[in-house]
Amino acid sequence: MDLHTLQITWFGLIAVLWTGYLVLEGFDFGVGMLLPFLGRNDTERRVLINTIGPVWDGNEVWLITAGGATFAAFPLWYATLFSALYLPLLLVLVALILRGVAFEYRGKIDDDRWRARWDAAILFGSTVPALLWGVAFGAILQGVDEKDITNTPWHVLLGALRPYPLLTGATTLLLFCLHGALFLSLRTTGELHGRARATARRLAPPAVAVAAVWALWTQLEHGAGWTWGPVALAAAGLLGALLLTRCENDGKAFALTCLVIVCAVVTIFGSLYPAVLPINGGTDLTVENASSTELTLQIMTGVAVIFTPVVVAYQSWTYWVFRYRVGITDIPPSTGLAPFGRPRSSRTSA
Fold first, then answer.
1. 20 to 30 A from 281, CA-CA: which of 3, 52, 191, 313?
2. Block means of pLDDT (10 residues each) for the chain, length 350 residues?
3. What is the count of structural domains for the chain?
4. The domain containing residue 102 runs over which residues?
5. Taking the model in full, what pTM does it have?
6. Which residues partner with 280 through β-bridges?
7. Is 91 inside any structural domain?
8. Residues 256-289, buried b or exposed e (16+ Cβ, 10 A)?
9. Beta partners for residue 145, in sequence order
């Protein structure tokens, strides 16, 4: 492939990686945000955590790969983006680290206050990225000011908190909550299953309304002619998910929220192209002027062809193995360390 074809290919592959991340990590964020509201006691909260326990860290591989691919294929895009959105992206990173630590540590000590603190960390670590990823993508679509690239972090954060980025953040927040509620309705039993289904029914109308406003604003202000297609498909998916939550058809409703997220990412990247980062008051970064050399892209393509099927196959196998529902009868008694480090007889689960 020639250089231009490689540039377009890697722009598309980065969009695919973000799609995989937001679809898979989206329901993880939703579960984390709903944890203190659906789980009325520690056993129920452990059920909720165990629905995503085998897969949440694997889902983050998509983010790591997307970041690495951006750094290697479009280094100027990567450097400018992190300069322009330094503080929001730093907050996302801190939240993700805190969330991962919370999943691992909450069951280490058999103490209600200990677990409550880590549950709050899970809530924080799920809500902040769900909101700020949307804010970041909204800021990218709207364009960053040239002075933001070298300005103070607080000025950059205030610049990102404009109406359109905030609307994008509200859209991802509500959509991920709905996505997570539908995932829980597929993976839980008993009262938790009914509670998750009822939550999905309550979340669907506001999620549909906010997402519809965002899609229309995005298309009218930033979209290309062909992106009306994914916008229309996303609208149909949202309406279908709303109806299916009323009909208690959880599986199809979850599939439609996956479709909506896919269409949203296609709309964002389709609206950007050929730019990768619009710069207000300066020269936009495009797939041509921000990319690596042809040799670098050729080597990356060879590596991706070899290893991407391996990663997809392994992650698909993981989801297949852990596809069964989880209920309170599947959760053993907590057997971690008592307060002040007194040992229990065996290890604890989440």
1. 3
2. 91 94 94 92 92 89 92 91 83 93 89 91 95 92 73 57 89 96 93 93 93 93 90 92 87 93 95 88 85 93 90 90 87 64 46
3. 1
4. 3-332
5. 0.90
6. 145
7. yes
8. bbbbbbbbbbbbbbbbbeebbbbbeeeeebbbee
9. 280
